[in-house]
Structure formats: C-alpha cells, structure tokens
Design goal:
mainly alpha, Dna Ligase, domain 1, 3 domains, two-stranded antiparallel sheet, single chain, about 50% helix, about 350 residues
Length: about 350
C-alpha cells in the first residue's frame, strides 16, 4: 500500500512538473508570437522571388523579427500547410505596433505589401514608362516593352497601331512593389480610357479626325511646346498645313523616327521613315508619346489663325514665335540662333 502511495505521489509530482513545463513553454511561445517590431521606426522588408522559408526568416532576423529562427522556420512551414497559403513576394512595410504573428499573417496574405507612388510625367514614350516602372517598382522593363507591342493586348483595346504608344495615361499612380508589368499596363490603359470617355469622347465625335489621329496630333503638340497656353496655337498651325496639303515638318516626329532626342541634322531630316513628317505628308502612323489632357484638348480645339510656321524663341521661357510666311519665319529662326549663342556665352 505504501509503495502504491509512493508511486502515486511521484506521478502527481511528475504531472505537475510536465504541466508547469508545458505552461511555461506555452507562455514563452505566446510571448514570442506577440513580440513587436524592435525600435521606434517603421521598417521595410523585401521578400525576393524563389526565397525559401529559411531564407525569409533569416531576412527578418536582421530586423529582430522571427527570433529564434529555429522556432519560426518550422512554425512558418506549419502555418503554410495548415492554411494552404503561399508567401507573397514584394516589399513590406511594418511598424513598431506589428507583432511576429501580424507579420506571419501578412507575408502569407500580402496585406501589408508596401504601396509605391509612381509618377509617369506627361509626354513620355513607352521606353520611358518601362524605365520608370523598373526603377520605381523593380519590374522587368523588357517584359513591359514586349507587352506594349503584344498584338492580343493591342487588339483587345481596339488600338489601330502596332504598339500602345500614346494610349498609356501619364499620371500619378500607386502600385504594389514588384507589381506584374501586365497589371501596371492595364491600369494605365484603363485610366486613359476613363479620361477619354469623361473629357473627350463626345467632342471627338464632331471632329474630322479619328481618335487615333487626335492622339497622334496631340502627341506632336505635346512634344513641340511645354507651354499649355501655346498648344491651341500650335494645333492651329498643323491644321493649316494639313489643309494646304503641306508637310507638317515637325522635328519631334523625326526624333521619334531615328530613336534619339537630339539636335537634328540635314541627314536626319532625309531619313526615310513613315514618322518623318519632313518627307511624308499628313499625320504620322501613330502617337509619338503619351499626350497630356491639355494637348488632347488643343488637338480637338485648334486656334483659328493664319500661322503656318513657328520656332522657339531660344530663351528660358519655352515660348515660340509664329509666322504667316516663310520670310518672317526665317527672321525668327535667325533670332532663335542668336539667342542660343547668347545663352551659351553666358
């Protein structure tokens, strides 16, 4: 009887000890899960493509998160199996209020992926969109360009061209870090369509030009002057020249044709390319950039006048001199060259 009581006492003590150990471990485990991000500032952590759970945990270890790794590596794997989730790649933002558990949930849901503000300036070309997207979002610029020339995507958006040039809306956007190129492009196309429908669709029905032609002319106006108040006047010059069946003779179209933004030579002006409006009459095949709303409005509402030529003043104003005849134009060109020399001398 004594031996039985003795054994019974041992088992009781052992049970209490096990309970204490389990309780202690549970408490430590709980405290580990609710441990917050060290420090007083927000942190940004990037999860790269093809990263293993072990690598991800060690990446967070650098910020004092997911420690100890021997606990969180198996824990993350178990969490992944139980929830059927996957780790979302990208750049995450966390604050000192976030716990290890918050972060664990976040990387398996993508809910705290960092939002990146991206500015696409007006008047830029497809190559510029691609390079900005690469720099700001860390996406493949080559893939971006390839998609901009994708026949299926072009046809789906009813664009009568071989590219999306002129149809990506320049503006300020917010995207997830490492957003897929196709998602970025679709967003820019959607914004273009929204802006067109809201501002120009009805007015364009009254124009003798198609939407594609309006955007093409608007892109040339955009490239010719950075001064919004001049755009309707520049538009009027091109309407006058087209009505007279004159060549448009727009320098930016030649620069687009040769693929370089530079001071043009006489050889450049003779370059045989449909975009060279010095040797081909009418509008070029398509837009040469993504025009602003101001330039699209100008393309639809040209100023009525008799001007046939214009040339930059040559100072810092960005303004132009407009002429009704060639001799007057030559005088303004001479003044432009003089102003340029004076600027260089300064």
């Amino acid at each position: 009887m004594r031996r039985r009581r003795k054994k019974s006492g041992i088992w009781l003590k052992l049970s209490i000890l096990i309970l204490l150990v389990v309780s202690g471990c549970s408490y430590v485990f709980y405290r580990t899960l609710v441990k917050t991000v060290p420090g007083e500032r927000e942190i940004f952590v990037t999860i790269e493509k093809n990263s293993s759970i072990s690598h991800i945990v060690k990446t967070f270890n650098k910020y004092g998160i997911f420690e100890p790794d021997w606990l969180f590596v198996p824990l993350a794997k178990i969490y992944m199996e139980l929830t059927g989730s996957k780790v979302y790649i990208g750049k995450y933002r966390f604050t000192p209020e976030n716990t290890n558990l918050d972060i664990l949930r976040a990387i398996f849901s993508g809910k705290q992926l960092s939002i990146v503000k991206v500015v696409f300036p007006e008047g830029i070309q497809l190559t510029d969109f691609a390079s900005i997207a690469k720099r700001k979002l860390n996406i493949d610029s080559a893939e971006f360009i390839r998609l901009c020339y994708n026949d299926s995507l072009i046809k789906a958006n009813q664009i009568p061209s071989n590219s999306l040039e002129g149809y990506l809306m320049a503006d300020t956007y917010e995207f997830f870090w490492e957003e897929k190129p196709i998602n970025v492009i679709k967003r820019l196309l959607q914004e273009h369509n929204r802006v067109w429908q809201a501002n120009f669709s009805e007015e364009a029905k009254k124009s003798s030009l198609s939407k594609h032609q309006i955007l093409t002319l608007a892109s040339i106006i955009e490239a010719e002057t950075s001064v919004p108040d001049e755009r309707a006047r520049v538009s009027g010059v091109y309407y006058n020249r087209l009505r007279l069946n004159w060549n448009m003779e727009s320098d930016p179209t030649v620069q687009y044709a040769i693929g370089k933004r530079k001071r043009l030579t006489y050889t450049d002006l003779e370059y045989k390319n449909p975009y060279n409006t010095y040797i081909y009459k009418g509008l070029p095949p398509g837009p040469i950039n993504s025009p602003s709303k101001s330039s699209i409005f100008a393309a639809l509402n040209p100023e009525k006048h008799n001007y046939l030529f214009f040339v930059a003043v040559g100072d810092d104003s960005g303004l132009h001199k407009f002429s009704t005849n060639y001799n007057q134009h030559l005088r303004f060109k001479s003044q432009f060259k003089k102003n340029q020399r004076n600027r260089i001398a300064e």
